[in-house]
Amino acid sequence: MSSTATADEIRGLSGYVVRQAEPGDIADARSVMLDTVYRDFGHGYLPQWHADIIDVESFYLAPEDNALFVAERGGRVVATAGVRGQTPTSPPHPPEVADRFEEGRTASLYRVYVRPEHRRRGLAGALVDACLDFAASRERYTGVYLHTDARTPGAVEFWSRRGAVLFDERVAVNEHRGDAGEPFETVHFRLRLPR
């Protein structure tokens, strides 16, 4: 996929443009992300996990091997997906996950978020495809990692179509969890890189 493509070209949808984000998109992209962590996840902004939402430029736009993709409609960003060169480590991730990826050569997907009124239109899939194409175009990356919260409706099914479950914290004991409170419902995936 080119760096800019209409959703018509990608999935037969009209009215959306999927492209790599630019500095002028930061405020709208941040709004999509913050709205999602507050509304959908119910916990809101947590500095230890969401620093990239506040500093989009440093995490996604400045590094050569990182990128943020957006879906836009009517000049407004309505969905996001980011790729960063970040190998999962243990802790906080289970060793069964961290041991499966080559240090420094892993792309991780983040912030695949779509505003509720734009869901079920193929935007998440188009954005993920853009991220995977980007990762495949970089010589550095040999694997792609993603984790999702299983409480998000349809998330496990969506990611299962794009890769393999490496570790499901709903059914496995995570000894690194400590006193985190409620049990984690995180599912960890290895995604397929397009060739």
Automatic annotation (TrEMBL):
InterPro entries: Acyl_CoA_acyltransferase, Bact_Acetyltransf, GNAT_dom. The keyword Kinase does not apply. One of its GO terms (molecular function) is acyltransferase activity, transferring groups other than amino-acyl groups. Residues 16-195 form the N-acetyltransferase domain. Gene3D superfamilies: 3.40.630.30. Keywords: Acyltransferase, Transferase. PANTHER family: AMINOALKYLPHOSPHONATE N-ACETYLTRANSFERASE-RELATED-RELATED (PTHR43877). This is Acetyltransferase (GNAT) family protein. It comes from Glycomyces sambucus.
